[in-house]
Write a structure and sequence with these properties.
10 strands; single chain; alpha+beta
Length: 234
């Protein structure tokens, strides 16, 4: 599976970096979609509400964005406008929340995955950012499965095969990281997240990215990060 996924990594020369308030997204204009995202998650001090509308980025060429902001619709298939960087981690700023709903931060995500395994990675971030400042780096594995590319006509974008994420906390001898590759599948439910955990070294091998953590952190697989009791996920 990883060899097939590796075929979807974009050439760096095709990438445009987009710096938003509180997060950064790298977009492949040829794909009209993101390949990578990064942000710092600090202690939760805000509670602005997420916008219900989705938007084009007014400062990015139309040729680098999807062609529609509407819901992904395919009879018999359930896909969400899935966030790479979630609005809830930017709830200190109305502007940052709005920018998180730019289509440059959105891709087709299987509904069960978006509301299941992927959501759990966001909840883990939400809880642990109140313990330590976190660095979150993630991205898209486009792959070569054309069987689920339902939205090329409606949105101009293919459907990624998987998404990856690394959460880093601590420094020096206290540095820790957890990493996942989550398939963009309706089977990627919340209870399966632990089965998608990988080492940071594996992320680097598959994606070609260099993750800024110590070698000893890269090579070992962390124990699952359990959500602390009483965590406020709002």
């Amino acid at each position: 599976i990883f060899l097939a996924l590796l075929g979807g990594v974009a050439n760096a020369s095709e990438i445009e970096r987009l710096d938003y308030e509180g997060f950064t997204v790298w977009v492949d204009c040829d794909k009209r979609g993101a390949v990578k995202f990064q942000y710092n998650a600090q202690r939760d001090t805000g509670n602005f509400k997420r916008k219900s509308s989705f938007y084009f980025d007014p400062n990015v060429s139309k040729s680098c964005q999807q062609t529609s902001t509407k819901t992904y619709k395919k009879k018999g298939q359930r896909y969400d406008r899935g966030h790479l960087v979630p609005a809830n981690h930017l709830d200190y700023s109305k502007n940052a929340i709005k920018q998180s709903n730019y289509m440059t931060n959105i891709l087709p995500q299987a509904a069960n995955m978006n509301r299941g395994a992927w959501l759990l990675t966001e909840e883990i971030t939400e809880c642990y950012r109140d313990i330590d400042e976190l660095l979150i780096i993630g991205g898209v594995i486009w792959g070569d499965n054309s069987g689920d590319d339902y939205f090329v006509k409606s949105h101009g974008v293919k459907t990624p095969d998987a998404f990856w994420k690394v959460i880093i906390r601590g420094t020096g001898a206290d540095e820790r990281a957890i990493a996942w590759i989550v398939p963009n599948s309706q089977e990627a439910t919340r209870k399966k997240l632990d089965t998608y955990q990988v080492t940071v070294s594996e992320i680097e091998r598959i994606t070609g990215e260099k993750i800024p953590v110590a070698d000893y952190v890269k090579k070992s697989k962390s124990n699952p990060w359990v959500i602390p009791k009483g965590c406020d996920k709002s």
